[in-house]
Amino acid sequence: MKKKERNLYLSNVDVEEALDLYFRRVDEHLYGLDVEKVQVIESQGRVTASPVFARLSSPNHNAAAMDGIAVKAKTTFGASEANPMRLKQNRDFVFIDTGDPIQEPYDAVIMIEDVVEIDEETVEIIKAASPWHDIRPIGEDIVAHEMIVPSHHTIRPVDLGALLSGGILEIEVYRKPKVGIMPTGSEIIEPHEPMGEGKIIESNSRVFEGLIKEYGGNPNRYSPVADDYGLLREQLLAAVEENDMVIINAGSSAGSEDYTVKLIRELGEVLIHGIATRPGKPTILGIIQGKPVMGIPGYPVSAYFVFDTFAKPLIAKYLGQGVPNRPRVEAVVSKRIVSALKHKEYVRMKLGMVDDQLIATPLNRGAGATMSLVRADGILIIPQNSEGVEAGERIQVELLKDMQDIHHTIVSIGSHDLIMDMMGNYIHRQNARYHLSSAHVGSLGGLMALRRGEAHMAPIHLLDEAYGEYNISFVKKYLSNLDMALIKGVKRIQGFILPKENPKNIKNFHDLTREDVQFVNRQRGAGTRILVDYKLKENQIDGGAISGYDREMTTHMAVAAAVASGAADVGIGVLSAAKALDLDFIPIGDEEYDFAVPTKYLENTMIKLFIKVLQSHELKESLEIMGGYKFDRAGEIIIIN
Amino acid sequence: MKKKERNLYLSNVDVEEALDLYFRRVDEHLYGLDVEKVQVIESQGRVTASPVFARLSSPNHNAAAMDGIAVKAKTTFGASEANPMRLKQNRDFVFIDTGDPIQEPYDAVIMIEDVVEIDEETVEIIKAASPWHDIRPIGEDIVAHEMIVPSHHTIRPVDLGALLSGGILEIEVYRKPKVGIMPTGSEIIEPHEPMGEGKIIESNSRVFEGLIKEYGGNPNRYSPVADDYGLLREQLLAAVEENDMVIINAGSSAGSEDYTVKLIRELGEVLIHGIATRPGKPTILGIIQGKPVMGIPGYPVSAYFVFDTFAKPLIAKYLGQGVPNRPRVEAVVSKRIVSALKHKEYVRMKLGMVDDQLIATPLNRGAGATMSLVRADGILIIPQNSEGVEAGERIQVELLKDMQDIHHTIVSIGSHDLIMDMMGNYIHRQNARYHLSSAHVGSLGGLMALRRGEAHMAPIHLLDEAYGEYNISFVKKYLSNLDMALIKGVKRIQGFILPKENPKNIKNFHDLTREDVQFVNRQRGAGTRILVDYKLKENQIDGGAISGYDREMTTHMAVAAAVASGAADVGIGVLSAAKALDLDFIPIGDEEYDFAVPTKYLENTMIKLFIKVLQSHELKESLEIMGGYKFDRAGEIIIIN
């Protein structure tokens, strides 16, 4: 492996300063984005380059506002209940329908409900009509030459209606800004290529494409380029030529394969390299031939937030639009979040309404955690000068999902099992309004969350060593102040998760102490960890004698993945996790995976739906395929306190 | 004109009841919407038909979390500051970059900042590494076989990233529901056709197309069909065959050209005809061959709300999604709104933040008012059993625009002039964050709005008869409790607006009393109305002697439109309105059109922007083209109290 040069000098520019500086520099170059004409019927989502004035009035004629008869108002004067007046067709009146034009000499409408038909050509009225009564005058809605939409307006469906009614067929809009996307890196492969050692599937460019389209731009993705200066240079020159702005992805960390900053410096100018943000620090903001060229880090979450912070406002600027910001909502944060003073941080949060309080819980903060973006309900922005937030603090969260969805979400915090994703899937299928949100913090963490009023339910599987019983005594112990119930869930099999064929012939807990055996554990507070410690105690084994006892994973699947990859020789987990990754499994025993729920929620529509799905045929079928589950008591409710 | 049959029997079914009844009937037919496979990279906006599980883990290998060296943890035990340890390349360590795979026998990473390079193949460390330190294990983000997205999930850009990273190339999604749109009516013309007597440009179908696309459906618009039973029948049969649901537009009023209800009854079943909603009463909900077929009224605003109430949820149902509801916000209503008890009403509202209070003002309630939909910031729904709301009442408003935009809107309530649209256009061009919202209620109405704290400014042109002076004395009189300023605007010319060539030879106010002359007036409280009354008084003419004195229009353009159409022979208004419609004009005199503003707003960024635009070159150029304006004092600030 070659020795590499290191560029250790990244700046740490404040995000707002960076935005300000960058935008002032690119501003000089952003005027004069081309204007094009489009058909009104194809203009949805486009941004007007100039105001649009009506060509015609609407209505374009004086029109009857009701079905009835058109009369000359003067003719009807004197008609009353005491003195009904008869009118002759085609002399005093004509029948007319809503929207029909009012012709001379008529100048008023009497609605049909106020007209009595006497015979074929005669009607009777008992009330006079005032001039222009029940007539929609020309231009009542749109007057020719009035402005229908201003410039820099994004065309919505309702605007289409007004434009067409005003006689407009074509409008002038801004050309969509072209955004070049260059994925780079020798480790990158396209999704359809076979996975190889050390390879990473290129995905950020597709996320960018999607976001660019949402913001009204035209994405232009180039094929991935390896870390070769010459190839990168050639592609970058082409990209700058063909687009209004360019995003180069990956290779922007201060590492030896970092050509991006050198390239931008050579072909143009690097304004900033290194932003005080987490994730996303090694961002590069540059200009080549007057066009913005950005180096965005490769880690998916970094890529997302850097794009959101810098590329999105640029696209908005090209289109003369304000930056589309996410709606904000106030919430209470459920756990302490620590943040360094040196950077601004974007923390992904889950949100839930519990007892009319909006609770926000942080998700995994690793910069590569794509799933944290998928699962996030909102973002908490911790400013650079802040050390974080305390549990219970009121915070502002930017919404990534609809508040409506969040209101209709069951908040589950506690122990992880594969069935929770399946439950969420079936709940949403049963009733599209509802969602299940699962946070995996372990069984004890779940009970603590219930105690603090942050969840509707906690999945737990806590073995009471003294009684050999599951769950009930823990609920009594930790939640003595709340009226609690236990919804029975499933019985599942726990055991040793081993590589296929169990090459190291691991059979029992004593084997874990072997020098050649690497163990991987669960986190403290997890029901599985409690089971492990119970078993070790039963076997009189000290955790310290096990290599890897301190290595903690937070889900069954993570344990299975570690074993499958060779990062560990054995772990303890559920059969379904081993089965999912085609691993060997030696059962230790059954355990009960139940749901602790405050009794006040039992009548809640969402919880009733949860129980219904828990007892459903579809779930049973899925569990049978997943393996290792028994569900004869599923949905049974036990009142504890 | 033929005599027509009348169907006077419309029901008045409660909206919620209608929805419930209709959905229970169509439910039987909605299962089994086809599923199709799409490429992940083309799946944005599509709805998953089944949950998607990862095929690969991500990372797919144990990866270095930092740039540095990969070591065997055991080897490093004992290293400390007091006891630095030297390591040899390729025996004890290798250099490694972030993301690179960890190869046997290495099992930990020490970041480069903690490594001192001694020579070509030797480094020194002062701290031991624990096993798996700074390594991202396989599956840290996504574990093979875990659920990435559930079913009935709409794919967003972030989901694309996770799916690709999980090795998924294709997913199963629901086919987009096909929605057939049939515009009908003999008065309908296509936008490109020449306007004719009594014709109406077909526009609702395009609004539906846009909305259907937004909701994830596939619109399928048919060419407009005249009111011919045979032709309609043929097209409806084809539409039912080719689509999942059909919308028939127009012709659904209880009028003689109403074939829609007969047709649906003949080919299938009419469940409901007539809903207790305003606008939108004559809606038809039917079923043909198991598919929903709706008759939606032709008036644009009725069409919009009926589509929103009935078609939108149906499309959501097809896709297994919850109905996308508009966000709600609480506001204070600025004027009394009366509503009948017999129907649910959708009132279009303008919203503005004034002194941290969100104020809602109703717009024009005519069902044909397309521009009210374009201009509306929100909808106030008045339930069926409510008689309306009082001024000052707190109400829930459904947002049609972003709250961000509403926060950045200058609220102007008062007298109308063409320059206000132009001002709004230029303000938004100057700074895409800002908007100008204009409500036309007349000069006095504007002052009252300021008094109630509902606006930032009131455009006024009120002539003080005693002093022959404009505006200042009225501000003093009506707003004595507020510190007020007057921003000078423009001088504009008022006069008689007359048909081209002035065929009736109208020269002065006395001519208005002629029997052959139809006048059209402005509404009480309008500055122009005050001018008219002043002039009549000056000429000793009684308003009652003028035919049409009671006929009130609310804007200059409406007056001009009435004259242009022949609905009136003369009106009083500004030169620019006459010029816009190519009408004759006899000047009466100059008047001053200024802006009354509470002094506390003068330092407001938005107001300063307003003044800047008022004094801008672009505005002056536009005013010159519009005609009749003088602007030498524009932007001057006079402190009144």
Automatic annotation (TrEMBL), chains A, B:
Catalytic activity entry: adenylyl-molybdopterin + molybdate = Mo-molybdopterin + AMP + H(+)
Cofactor: Mg(2+)
Source species, domain of life: Bacteria
A Pfam short name: MoCF_biosynth
Classification via InterPro entries: MoaB/Mog-like_dom_sf, MoaB/Mog_dom, MoCF_biosynth_CS, MoeA-like, MoeA_C_domain_IV, MoeA_C_domain_IV_sf, MoeA_linker/N, MoeA_linker/N_sf
Entry's EC annotation: 2.10.1.1
Protein name: Molybdopterin molybdenumtransferase
Taxonomic lineage from the root: Bacteria, Bacillati, Bacillota, Clostridia, Peptostreptococcales
